[in-house]
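Morning run. Coffee first, then this:
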Amino acid sequence: MKPLYSCNAPAQSGATDTRRLVVLAFLVAVALVVSFIESMLPPAILLAPGAKLGLGNIAPLIALIILGVGDAFIVTALKCLLGAIVTGGVSGLMYSVPSGMLALAVEVLLFYTVFDRISVAMISLIGAIVFNCVQLGVASLVTGVNLLTLLPWLATAGLLAGAFTGLLAYYIVKRLPYSVYGGVRRSRD
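And here it is:
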C-alpha cells in the first residue's frame, strides 16, 4: 500500500496553520454530528447492547493520516467531550475517554510501526476491538458486574464496524484534494 499524505511538515506560513485549524475543526464537527446521529440509532447488533458502527471514529483516523498524532488526539478528545455535552451523557465520559484514547494510541502505534504491512481498515478494526475491550473493562469496574461475557458479541461488532470505518476513512483520504492537507507526502523511511 502506498503511504498516504500528511500535514506533519513544519508550518511554513500562516496559511498552513489556518488550513490545519480549518481541517481540524471540520473533522471535529463531522465526528460530533455523526456520533450524535448514531446515538439515536438502535444497536448495530441486537445481541451486543450499545454496539454502534462507530462512524464518528472515522474523523480521528483521518486526522491521524492527514494531520498527525497530536491532532488525532485533539479530535478524539473533543469528540468525546462535546459529544457528551450535546447528547447529555456527561457520565459517559468515563467510558468514552479512556476507550477512545487507548484505541487511538493503539492505532497510532500500528500506523507508525506496521502500516506498510497492514491496511487502514485493519488498523481501524484493531482500534475498534481495543475500544470495546476498554469500555467493557471500565463498565465492569464502575458497575461492579462482570460484563466481559459481552466481549464476544462486542468483538464481533468491533470487527465489522472497525473494518467498515477503516475502509471509509481510507477512501475518503484517497479522494481528498491536496489543497485540504497541503499535499505534503508522509514519508516513514
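The chain is about 70% helix and 0% strand. Good start to the day.
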